[in-house]
Amino acid sequence: MEDLSYVRTDMLPERDPPASEVGVIGWLRMNLFSGWFNSILTVIALAFIYLVLAAIIPWLWSPTWGAGSLSACREIIAELGKEHGGACYGVITERWQQLLFGFYPEELRWRPILTFIGLFVALAPVLFNETFPGKMLWFTGAFLFLAPWLMWGGPIWTPLLVAAGPALGFVAYRYLVSVIGNLASVIVAVLIPVLFWLFLVGPLSQAIDGVVPLGIEVVESRLFGGFMLSVWIGVVAIAISLVLGVILALGRQSDLLIVKYLSVGFIEFIRGVPLITLLFVASTLLNIFMPPGTNFDIILRVMIMATLFASAYIAEVIRGGLAALPRGQYEAADALGLDYWKAQRLIILPQALKISIPGIVSTFIGLFKDTTLVSIIGLLDPIGLTGSIRADANWNGIVWELYGFIALLFFISCFSMSRYSMWLEKKLRTDHR
Amino acid sequence: ATLDDVQARGSLKCGSNSGLTGFAAPDANGHWEGFDVAVCRAVAAAVLGDPEAVEFVPTTPKTRFTALASGEVDILVRNTTWTLTRDVDLKFTFTGVNYYDGQGFIVPKALGVSSAKELDGATVCIQTGTTTELNLADFFRTNNISYEPVPIETNAEAQQQYLAGACDTYTTDASGLAATRASFENPADHAILPEIISKEPLGPLVRHGDDEWADIVRWTLNALVAAEEFGITSTNIEELASGTDNPEINRILGTEGTMGEMLGLEADWAMKAIAAGGNYGEIFEKNIGESTPIGLARGLNAQWKDGGLQYAPPFR
Amino acid sequence: MLIYDSRYRSATIQIVALIGFLLLIGWLVSNTVQNLADLGKSVGFGFLTEPAGYDINQRLLDYDSRDSHARASLMGLLNTLLVAVLGCIMATIVGVIVGVLRLSNNWLVARIMTVYVEMFRNVPVLLWIVFSMAILIETLPAPSAFRGDEPSASMLLGDSVALTNRGVYVPEPLFGRMDEEGHPLTWRQGLGDIHLFGEAWFRFDVSLELVVFLSTLIAGILVSRLIGQRADRIQNSTGVRPKTFWLRAAVIVVPSVIVLWLMGFYLGKPALRGFNFDGGTHLRNSFIALWLALSLYTAAFIAEIVRGGILAISKGQTEAAAALGIRPRRIMSLVILPQAMRVIIPPLISQYLNLTKNSSLAIAVGYMDLTGTLMGITLNQTGRELEAVMMTMLIYLAISLAISGAMNVYNNRVKLKER
Amino acid sequence: MEVSDEVAIQITDMNKWYGTFHVLRDIDLTVYRGERIVICGPSGSGKSTLIRCINRLEEHQQGSIVVDGNELNSDLKNVDKVRSEVGMVFQHFNLFPHLTILENCTLAPIWVRKVPRKEAVDRAMHFLEKVKIPDQANKYPGQLSGGQQQRVAIARSLCMMPRIMLFDEPTSALDPEMIKEVLDTMIELAEEGMTMLCVTHEMGFAQAVANRVIFMADGQIVEQNEPKEFFNNPKSERTQQFLSQIIGH
Amino acid sequence: MEVSDEVAIQITDMNKWYGTFHVLRDIDLTVYRGERIVICGPSGSGKSTLIRCINRLEEHQQGSIVVDGNELNSDLKNVDKVRSEVGMVFQHFNLFPHLTILENCTLAPIWVRKVPRKEAVDRAMHFLEKVKIPDQANKYPGQLSGGQQQRVAIARSLCMMPRIMLFDEPTSALDPEMIKEVLDTMIELAEEGMTMLCVTHEMGFAQAVANRVIFMADGQIVEQNEPKEFFNNPKSERTQQFLSQIIGH
Ligand SMILES: Nc1ncnc2c1ncn2[C@@H]1O[C@H](COP(=O)(O)OP(=O)(O)OP(=O)(O)O)[C@@H](O)[C@H]1O
Ligand SMILES: Nc1ncnc2c1ncn2[C@@H]1O[C@H](COP(=O)(O)OP(=O)(O)OP(=O)(O)O)[C@@H](O)[C@H]1O
Ligand SMILES: NC(=O)CC[C@H](N)C(=O)O
Ligand SMILES: [Mg+2]
Ligand SMILES: [Mg+2]
Q1: Is residue C374 a contact partner of residue C388, using CB atoms and an 8 Å limit?
Q2: In testing the pocket of ligand 2, which one of E17, E21, E27, E40 has its CB within 8 Å of the most ligand atoms?
Q3: Nearest-CA distance D74 → chain C (Å)
């Protein structure tokens, strides 16, 4: 055995890899032709892409934006001498507004648009809490009451009074807590706003409006439709179901057996039945369950059922967030003397909700896609509208353009939301806080 | 009560077909027109004085009854057949018949079929939740021939599948078939088979339990029919309203008696109803009559005097 | 105060909650009773025994329009289960393939799969369902196109499969071929059916051929497993595993084929007769559209689950196995898959659950499932909203609970043991 | 550092079970105001459980615990009183990661003690200065080192102005360099006369500040003594064995 | 512990790139049968990569690696041969969590070496005894401590009867108490004459068993020598600097 010792005197510089390893060739070799099997796959994939594009692109390229009816389209396409036909975009030109807004009065469409812009502003501090100041959360809070008013219209007093409900409850709690004890005053504090909303808001707002008329034109929910309806149902249902979901999740995590099983029962029931059956309940049964004479319109009923539906799913998401919190947080809160509700509000929920945002976004995407089911009970969401557009003699027989347009709308919104939620998930993982 | 609700709301909610040319369909401006629509407008005119004060709620055969039962609409005028079950078990009140119809079949002429009995083994498009669906089953069963049903929700879908050849024939009320055929690109290529396999008296209906409201609807329809019988038309109604020698006409138009008051309406309720779209005959001719592309003959729907079944009870 | 004593606190709160809950239920029930009374309706399930009066095109058991609503609903339920089961199978197959291909080191293939997944995940399933239906109706030829001297469409696979815009006709398995007059063509004959439960609404027929064939098949599988166990034993004692694949396949296939031949098995091909194709099995448009759309949609989610499951197994596992000299295919089957399964199965089952629930969208294409029959036509013809909707919900709930119960059992069985 | 005659904590015949497992057996312990007690013992001997019983993070099943004259029983009012008298510092700090250091310190005073915000902030800054990190007040816990976090945790407890402090292995999750800074803080606190119960294996600390060392094993108090005696002259065999291990380590 | 003249591993002019990053540069290394080589060097210097090239967990792009007479090239048969001759132990054990300890050890012998199960079990028990945990055979990896797991990993490799063992920082993921038990196992192995390449920073281990220490930096072998010389008299500046850091630590 020779002498093993060795010392390098001058260090080797870094060299470039062999040409076959890098650059375009290296990339191709690595990613497309790294073996005979892969090469075959690549060829098949290329052929597949070619076939698909060759079938779709000529059809897509079709200058029919101005056509006023299907037969006009056919004429244009025949003139061009296209063999396999082409898309008829005239229907989109003519109906895109309807597909977006349904029958919402044209001169009032700034209202839903404003609402959705407001929605983004309101969500910004929640979704991108690093870039936007926390003060914007005040707007978010106010927006909760402004948005429905903007959409449905009516006297400005209604949202103000609605917002006053929780305040009343809070005041009542403050005064009563020392008189009748905590539990009773909590119950009262919950009941007061509910009763206030149910029985007083309407007459009061009318009364005030009689004195100081200040409001915007009422738009009946019957006129809501199209993509706007999907978004609106989704947003309202998620917003309210966040509250219900938190309650259900806390209930499910609670040590109180009855509360726990009630929550579990509700959650499992809702998650165990298809949404469409719940929508049938909305359309056929909900009025039967309500006191005789109650009659809220079908869109409200659908929103109620969608909210219940979403809240079961949100509850599960939030339960995951709660479970992800270390026990130490609960103990530290206890040791500092915070009671259950304060601990939840100040310590647990802020953290749990933050962890849950990706899950909430996913739930929203799911719900948003599911809002198309309302077409089955006769509401005019985009899919429902395709039916009524096709009932128009001009567009009788048009299919792909409408479905394609709707699919594109949904794809863009759902895809960007899912990207956001992936981004957030990654950020939460690396956020070592 | 429904009347109070309608008056408080200032508009009538009317369940209509989601789109059947000639019976109920929105025109290019979104204004609803048609034979059934005209009944709604007449009721609105009678109750509110304004034929335009109607909100139309499009329904499918499947959703129509829940819409009415749950109070989503005040009245359903949607080529709905009057049957015992619907009247008694489903708890609705039919307030008359605005079109006496029967179920028929439409086939492409190229199919070479001339009688429904030759349809053995055919694929049949059928709207679910209708009487026609049940009649169809009975018809093929009693004739001991087979068929393949393709259940469908709306007339538009049926039309699409039928035209694409996904079903050999489409069956529904003969009037509906005529209306559907009229909207085809080439109506002449399709034939309605001669067999009428059922009775389909179509009429407006309301919920059980509000007889006052049912009376209003019933007598509005009767007023339209009676108006034709007595020659009251939209052109001469102004003139007749100033008083005539015929006491029945006077009673109808409210210049005599207190019929409006009895119904809880203005005295000139019937006049407004008739003025809204004309009398029964005018409505028929304008929307589905022989001068329209739909081209239906009066047939059973002629006045009783002309050998038809339209027969308004006396206004007395 | 009770609430300040930890012994009574929870009881107090629970009783308050319970009272609140009961009040709510009571309120709903009393409203319902009141409303039904106002409408003059009564609650009852008598309607289920009335004749349904309507026909169902796809029925897995015998049914005609004189059968009861209960039996019509049963047909619907079976159709629901059929599309759900087939959908789950297809979704799993496609999902696994796509999920694995997404991890392929072929950039192009991985990208195509990504496009597939994103495309399906981000568009509502209802849209996919109506879209598939439209494709079937609008792009395939009508049966009449097959007719005439120069038909514009023709059948596939030696005249045994017809793709039409009314659905796909494929050959059906039949037994005991007859001639025109109905005499058996050979000494081999079909065995007929046995009828169970007489005239009850849940009666059904069992085809004896099927029973015989299945028994043979199961027996074959059992024998094949015995052979496999013997191979295990040989491997355990000598280290070398005998090659038994062909033997095992033969044990399953050969007896089944012989039994089929003995029973006079043949394929009934569809043929154009009258208005439609006749003979063969008719896979209706509504079924195919629903099945494809549900499975492709769900497959996109399953693909992500599979991909996640495989990625969740750390690279270290593969490397450790490779360093031991284990071949890539065995690494997959011995190390990666058993671990990935634990990660994959629970979310996979909840996708099955979703698919089953989504199958209720059948009514959008007129597929006669449970929602189409019980909650659709039956509800409509009888006006029994309360009963029909509640029953439908309960049936779906039962299916869901059964599936998730199975999942819990599985989860408990495979839970990794840890300190 | 003087010990008064006033009783701060009185534990009598206390027993606790987890399910059927008897974790604490017949614990008798009187802590006088101003005492600094170190509790040690092998893992699983019930040290944490004992200390957690004192502010009712765990419930005991038999015997009594009286803290500052309030008996810990099912009356939640008493529990609240005790918790606001007793501060606790955990092994893993348990700071609230979504709040800044300052907010961590002012949260409980504001919401439990109803101290005006201004005053709470002043008080928090005072104690943050005391633990020598006033400059970190507006950072989030995630941005601090372990030692700093533990000092914040101490400051957070102090902001509630407790009369008794409990520590459960406050240094065992820290890197060696950081242990000292935390121990220094605790020593300072001890010198100011705070009543302290501290579970720790830092024997240097015990010798420096404790006026009593308690050795637990199998859920029982096996030996207690003043530190010098305890370390130099352990009586029980268990203690000897334990000490030899600790020191050999 | 003697070293024969037979060559076990022969690496000649080997270069490897990750993308455009040159990780291993002109590596020349001859390992004789029975040698115990310790590789050390700063983080990122390519130690793991080198060792992983030897059983082709990574591919090299230039030069040659011959293990036991088999050249590692695109011929998969050679790779298989090499892998069944070379055992490897990873930093994070990489036991198969779904299999019991025994199954972990018998898996490869049964499926790769076609050893009858009975014999594989006997062999596994033999090696488990050697690493002193025969009683854990039916537990799952998750139920063992880190040190125990690493010993199982060693036993698992040994069950394939390798002629060469590679270790990649086998103790760096372990708690201090557990390091010793693993090192002891490795020392025992070394004493039996196993050819070993070990990436580690345990300098005590290097001095005790290695017959050669290799120092790598920037993807190159900077210095190699027998341990005594290496530690007492490092030649290159890089080595001196590195050693001063390690020891200061
Ligand atoms: N929530 C619990 N449920 C059941 N057993 C528990 C629970 N918490 C602790 N134990 C058991 O009680 C015993 C005492 O636990 P404790 O945490 O008080 O020990 P310790 O002395 O603090 O030990 P260490 O030094 O490890 O912190 C241990 O055996 C532990 O396993
Ligand atoms: N798969 C990879 N792709 C790209 N670069 C890599 C990859 N694996 C390692 N590297 C880089 O190669 C260099 C050498 O890595 P290697 O793991 O061999 O270092 P090491 O000497 O083992 O370091 P350590 O002591 O941290 O384990 C590092 O700079 C690392 O970032
Ligand atoms: N086709 C229809 O829309 C109505 C059909 C039939 N007249 C019915 O009432 O059931
Ligand atoms: Mg402890
Ligand atoms: Mg390394």
Answers
A1: yes
A2: E21
A3: 5
Tell me whether A222 touches chain B (CB under 8 Å).
Answer: yes
Q: Answer yes or no: do A298 and A332 share one domain.
A: yes
Whole-angstrom CA distances from A326 to A255, A278, A321, D54, D169 are 18, 36, 10, 22, 18
Asked if residues E170 and E200 have their Cβ atoms less than 8 Å apart, the reply is yes
- Residues B212-216, mean pLDDT to the nearest whole number: 94
- With respect to residue A16, please indicate whether it lies within any of the assigned structural domains: no
What is this structure's pTM? 0.90
Ligand 2, atom nearest to E58 Cα:
1
At A235-272, the pLDDT tens digits run 999 999 999 999 999 999 888 889 999 999 999 999 99
pLDDT for residue C179: 59
Q: Is D3 helix (H, G, I), strand (E, B) or coil?
A: coil
Domain final residue pick, A33, A54, A88: A88
Residue A30 lies in a domain: no
Query: How confident is the model over E145-202, as pLDDT tens digits?
Result: 888 999 999 999 999 999 999 999 898 877 766 788 888 889 988 888 899 999 998 8
Q: Are A398 and A390 in contact (CB under 8 A)?
A: yes
- Distance (Å, rounded) from C-alpha C239 to C-alpha E108? 12
Residue of B68, B70, B154, B292 to mutate for A, most A C-beta atoms under 10 A: B70
pLDDT at residue C60 above 50? yes
pLDDT at res. E249: 47
User: Does the pLDDT value for residue A22 go beyond 80?
Assistant: no
Judged by DSSP in three states, B260 sits in helix
Instruction: Show the domain range for A296.
Output: 94-104+226-433
CA B306 to chain centre: 21
Cβ contact D91:D169 at 8 Å: yes
User: What is the number of structural domains in chain A?
Assistant: 2
User: Is the complex ipTM more than 0.90?
Assistant: no
Residue ranges of the domains in chain C? Answer: 74-171+269-362+385-414
- A55 and A99 co-located in one domain: no
Distance CA C27, CA C35 (A): 12
d(CA C124, CA C107): 28
| Cβ atoms of residues A185 and A173 within 8 Å | yes
| pLDDT value of residue D249 | 44
For residue C169, the surrounding DSSP H or E stretch is: strand C167-170
**How far is the first Cα of chain C from the last one, in angstroms, to the nearest whole number?**
44
Q: Which residues surround ligand 4, an ion (CB under 5 A)?
A: D 48
User: Domains along chain D?
Assistant: 7-247 (3.40.50.300)
Q: Which residues of A touch C382 (CB under 8 A)?
A: none
Q: From ligand 2's centre to the CA of E124, what distance in Å?
A: 33
CB hemisphere CA count around C380 (13 angstroms): 23
Instruction: Decide if domain C74-171+269-362+385-414 falls under CATH 3.40.50.920.
Output: no
- Verify whether the Cβ–Cβ distance C3 to A181 is below 8 Å: yes
Looking at residue C177, what is its pLDDT? Answer: 63
Q: Which of B73, C384, B68, C29 is nearest to A289 (CA)?
A: C29
In a domain, A297, yes or no: yes
Q: How far is D75 from chain C (nearest CA, A)?
A: 4
Per the CB < 8 A criterion, the answer to whether B169 and B197 are in contact is: no
Q: Are D174 and D144 in contact (CB under 8 A)?
A: no
Residue A242 domain-assigned (yes or no): yes
**Two tokens at A381?**
């969401």
Mean pLDDT across D146-150 = 89
Closest residue by Cα to atom 1, ligand 3, is B172
**Contact by Cβ (8 Å): C125, C293:** yes
The sign one gets for the Cα dihedral E219, E225, E227, E231 is: negative
Average pLDDT across chain E, whole number: 89
Phi and psi angles of residue C123, each rounded to the nearest 5 degrees, phi first? -125, 135
